[in-house]
């Protein structure tokens, strides 16, 4: 049997309506995908349920790009169809930007020929005020840097003082040690002279000593005679 014709009207039964929505939504998304693949078409599908839930499909990389293409295709460029209020706001912002750019050029010393005496005086006052603020800021930063450097100097002096005190203490300890060492090493022990035994001495006998007159010409004979007369241990 063939499928009966479905009457197109709102389904009153809530459950049947939800089931039909789910089936036909999935079928529609499937058809959109098949159309984009088979026919190489750019397809964008947007579905909102009755509760506001979004379901979408886009064959391109971005839904926004497809919508912008759709807008250009139907209405032309977006800028050409701005509302009058937006156009006026745009013109005001554009004029303000041009004024600011011109003021910047004047501050840089450019395009001053078209200015009168009054405008030049105002520009000079603006530059003086800016220069004063710049100098004030510069002096403030320099004072801060000077204060930091002075604090660093005080810290370094404290460290130097502590190191010097430590070095002086170490030097004093070493000096006291050096003064004690010579006294300890230079101690001389006094010992009595050794007693010589009588065996080292040989008695002298007066009968063996002879005194002879020595002539100048008989020096050699006298030396020989003396050697003969003296004891053996005195040779």
From TrEMBL:
Taxonomic lineage of the native organism: Eukaryota, Viridiplantae, Streptophyta, Embryophyta, Tracheophyta
Record's subcellular location: Nucleus
Primary location group: nucleus
InterPro entries, per the entry: MADS-box/MEF2_TF (IPR050142), MEF2-like_N (IPR033896), TF_Kbox (IPR002487), TF_MADSbox (IPR002100), TF_MADSbox_sf (IPR036879)
PANTHER family: SERUM RESPONSE FACTOR HOMOLOG (PTHR48019)
Protein name stated in the entry: MADS-box protein
One annotated GO biological process: positive regulation of transcription by RNA polymerase II
Key words, A-Z: DNA-binding, Nucleus, Transcription, Transcription regulation
